[in-house]
Design brief:
Ferritin, about 0% strand
C-alpha cells in the first residue's frame, strides 16, 4: 500500500464539501421553482436531493476532520440559467451530478491503494452519483 497523500485528499474533500453544500442550495431552489401538473413528485425529488446533498457534505466533512483537515465555510459557485422550466432545471441538475461524479472519481484516484476505507467511500459515492445521472437522464428523455 502507498502512503495517503493527506494534503491532496483534504483538498479534494474540501472541494467536495463545498460542492455538496452548493447542491443543497441548488436543489432547494429547484424545489421552490417547479410548477405544472407534475409539480408534487418533482418537488419531492428535488427536496430529497437537497437532503442527500447535505448528508453527503456531512459525511465528507466528517472524513475531512478525521484527517485533521479544516472544513471550508464556502460553497461552490452555483451556475444557473435563470430558466425555470423543467427541462432547464433537469439539465442543470444533470450537469451538477456529472461534476459530482468527476469529483468523487478524483477522490478515488488520490486515495486508491492508500486507504481501503476512503476507496470504498469514494466508490460508494461514485455509485450513487452514477445512479443520479441515470435517473435524471430518464427524466429528461421525454424532452428530447
Amino acid at each position: 500500500m502507498k502512503e495517503l497523500d493527506s494534503c491532496a485528499t483534504i483538498g479534494i474533500l474540501n472541494h467536495l464539501m463545498e460542492f455538496e453544500l452548493a447542491g443543497v442550495v441548488r436543489y432547494t431552489h429547484y424545489a421552490l421553482m417547479v410548477t405544472g401538473p407534475n409539480r408534487i413528485p418533482i418537488v419531492q425529488f428535488f427536496q430529497e436531493q437537497a437532503t442527500e446533498s447535505l448528508l453527503h457534505a456531512q459525511q465528507v466533512g466528517g472524513i475531512l476532520t478525521g484527517l485533521e483537515g479544516h472544513p471550508s465555510l464556502k460553497i461552490e459557485p452555483i451556475e444557473e440559467t435563470n430558466q425555470h422550466n423543467l427541462k432547464a432545471i433537469l439539465t442543470e441538475s444533470l450537469n451538477h451530478e456529472k461534476k459530482a461524479l468527476e469529483l468523487y472519481k478524483e477522490l478515488l484516484n488520490v486515495v486508491q491503494d492508500a486507504s481501503i476505507y476512503l476507496e470504498e467511500f469514494a466508490r460508494g459515492m461514485i455509485g450513487q452519483e452514477e445512479l443520479h445521472n441515470i435517473e435524471i437522464k430518464k427524466m429528461l428523455r421525454d424532452f428530447v
